[in-house]
């Protein structure tokens, strides 16, 4: 989507979008815009309302914001207008930027408008959204120059659109190889290095926990490693490590799922957030070094699949007793985290995964679960999340929970066998593989990466994590 700044509507014909803060239902002063007057009886800027008016070849779409509005709500309103009112858009669309808007509000609005082009019907014949027409230019009606903010907003939405698509496409399309190719493509396009370890390379490296999970699938596992380094020299360059769960489908393995299996294409959403964040970080040319690993595999049912009670050997030499093959995410993450620490030694590590149903039971669909041993990054992650509406809430990592992963036969086991504190014991399992790293955080996003909202009839991707991770890295 291209944009162009204009300072008046002279010779304009088309649709003008006008965000309006709430005045008063009983106000006798009408909302005025370009000679139009809208009585408060029909519209006064109440949140989630809109009002269409026509005058001299211009369609005016007034958009109610309420008295105050946060980043996420504003972005959602803009997305809604773009997705649901596109039939009323003329060839030209202008966005009026209210005087009261700050740059974050401009960013949220423009990102939301672009996100509104997303269509879940990847395999249906659908008309292309007018904003995606290569000739289309969104006109920004303002006397101030917002071009830097607008460019950034477009980059954010573009990365989120990619993540939405990766998660929503079905598992017979999005295989581990598909993800590896995606990374290679985007690495070339946006400027980060990509190195993919296929089955043989993983065997040579000894990624035993990762390979155990992928054993039962026809689709070869792919261990994707991405490195972004800023082009220019940065004094005191910080180095962040990311790890994302890339299970392209989770049947549960031989401990086959009895409920909710149909949604398990979402089990690579943590990986997709890391992929989207890598695209965005490189696109924004952030002055930080980032090494990201997404272990991609399918947890399938087959004669070759790993068995409950198997003992497997992870990359860092830990023996793991498999209690439940459905607790597979922690296994691929364990190898991802160990590999990252041993070979790349990042200063900060964040992993993100649709890891447990327990995190959904605990926190529902409103925030992700945060686990960390480092109060500074806890605060920075929560602040980044709050500012963009991708919230996190911290849960404990106390050592009393360690008994949940103690095995009689091996160094650790992958599941306590008890239906309590599942998100915490999964986090304790991951912590075991961090080699006491001083700044590691784990985000369990099973409740927020994929869900219901006004934009479709069925559960679908949210792109949770793309903006959160990028903002966290930007603010380090
Ligand atoms: N992929 C699931 C977790 C999940 C649940 C993701 C709901 C998205 C929505 C994970 O691999 C899993 O199966 N977890 C089990 C672990 C259990 C067997 C220890 C769970 O949470 O039930
Ligand atoms: Mg599972
Ligand atoms: Zn899973």
TrEMBL record:
InterPro entries: Leucine_aapep/pepB, Macro_dom-like, Peptidase_M17_C. Keywords: Aminopeptidase, Hydrolase, Manganese, Protease. Residues 165-469 form the Cytosol aminopeptidase domain. One of its GO terms (biological process) is proteolysis. It comes from the Bacteria. The keyword Protease applies. One of its GO terms (molecular function) is manganese ion binding. The keyword Transmembrane does not apply. Gene3D superfamilies: Leucine Aminopeptidase, subunit E, domain 1, Zn peptidases. GO terms for cellular component: cytoplasm. Belongs to the peptidase M17 family. This is Leucyl aminopeptidase.
């Amino acid at each position: 989507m291209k944009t162009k700044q204009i300072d008046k509507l002279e010779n304009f014909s088309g649709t003008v979008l006008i965000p309006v803060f709430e005045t008063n239902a009983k106000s006798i002063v009408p909302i005025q815009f370009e000679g139009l007057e809208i009585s408060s009886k029909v519209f006064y800027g109440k949140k989630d309302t809109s009002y269409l008016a026509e005058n001299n070849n211009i369609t005016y779409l007034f958009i109610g914001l309420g008295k105050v509005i946060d980043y996420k709500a504003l972005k959602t309103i803009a997305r809604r207008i773009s997705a649901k009112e596109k039939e009323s858009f003329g060839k030209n669309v202008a966005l009026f930027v209210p005087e009261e808007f700050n740059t974050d509000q401009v960013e949220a609005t423009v990102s939301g408008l672009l996100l509104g082009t997303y269509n879940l019907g990847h395999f249906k014949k659908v008309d292309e959204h007018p904003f995606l027409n290569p000739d289309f230019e969104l006109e920004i009606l303002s006397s101030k120059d917002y071009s830097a903010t607008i460019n950034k907003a477009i980059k954010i939405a573009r990365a989120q659109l990619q993540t939405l698509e990766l998660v929503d496409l079905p598992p017979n399309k999005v295989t581990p190889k598909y993800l590896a190719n995606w990374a290679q493509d985007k690495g070339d396009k946006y400027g980060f290095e990509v190195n993919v370890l296929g089955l043989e390379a993983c065997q040579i490296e000894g990624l035993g926990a990762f390979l155990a999970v992928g054993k039962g699938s026809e689709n070869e596992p792919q261990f994707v490693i991405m490195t972004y380094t800023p082009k220019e020299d940065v004094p005191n360059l910080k180095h962040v490590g990311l790890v994302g769960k890339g299970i392209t489908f989770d049947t549960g393995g031989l401990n086959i799922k009895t409920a909710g299996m149909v949604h398990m294409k979402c089990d690579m959403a943590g990986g997709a957030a890391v992929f989207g964040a890598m695209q965005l970080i490189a696109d924004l040319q952030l002055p930080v070094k980032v090494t990201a690993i997404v272990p991609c595999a399918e947890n399938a049912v087959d004669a070759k699949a790993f068995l409950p009670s198997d003992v497997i050997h992870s990359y860092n030499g830990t023996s793991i007793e498999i209690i439940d093959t459905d607790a597979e995410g922690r296994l691929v993450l364990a190898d991802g985290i160990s590999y990252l620490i041993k070979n790349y030694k990042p200063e900060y590590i964040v992993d993100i995964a649709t890891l447990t149903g327990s995190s959904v039971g605990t926190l529902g669909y409103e925030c992700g679960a945060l686990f960390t041993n480092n109060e500074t990054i806890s605060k920075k992650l929560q602040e980044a999340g709050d500012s963009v509406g991708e919230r996190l809430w911290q849960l404990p990592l106390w050592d009393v929970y360690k008994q949940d992963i103690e095995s009689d036969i091996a160094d650790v086991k992958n599941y306590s066998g008890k239906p309590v504190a599942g998100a915490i014991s999964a986090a304790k399992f991951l912590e075991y593989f961090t080699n006491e790293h001083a700044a590691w955080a784990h985000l369990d996003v099973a409740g927020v990466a994929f869900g219901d909202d006004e934009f479709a009839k069925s559960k679908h991707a949210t792109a949770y994590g793309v903006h959160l991770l990028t903002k966290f890295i930007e603010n380090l």
